[in-house]
Amino acid sequence: MKIQPYLFFNGTCEAAFRFYEKALGGKIGELHRFKDMPPQEGSGSDGCGGMSPEALAAMGEKVMHVNLAVGDQMIMGSDNPDDSKNGIQGVTITLGFTDVEEGRKVFEALSKNGDVQMPYGETFWANGFAMFKDQFGVPWMINAGDKPSP
């Protein structure tokens, strides 16, 4: 089993995932837009999953679904203004590294133009740790070089 985060954005999904692709060294595998979504019978009076034709047209170029593979892990996302109007809350994506410098490089890349709550540095449990929100408002933690428990 794998746990795969699914992130919702208010119109910035593609920009965020292009940024993550570069910052994390991943590869976007799928990117589907709302305009390409085929009608789905029985899913609402409009046949488009409950979206009115007007709403679907307004979302046309926005991302319906994207996935980004990073090694054997994956994160996915979508533009969905209803689910993201208050930003991503109640969850933080945590990245773990054995190599402290690799953790630092990823922190520097992901936190660019973001809001750093705790800069990358040593803690009592790790040789490298940071907490921040990226430029898209997604909260992250980097944990690198775990220290043994006393």
TrEMBL record:
It comes from the Bacteria. Gene3D superfamilies: 2,3-Dihydroxybiphenyl 1,2-Dioxygenase, domain 1. SUPFAM superfamilies: Glyoxalase/Bleomycin resistance protein/Dihydroxybiphenyl dioxygenase (SSF54593). Pfam families: Glyoxalase. Residues 3-142 form the Glyoxalase/fosfomycin resistance/dioxygenase domain. This is PhnB protein. It comes from Luteibacter jiangsuensis.
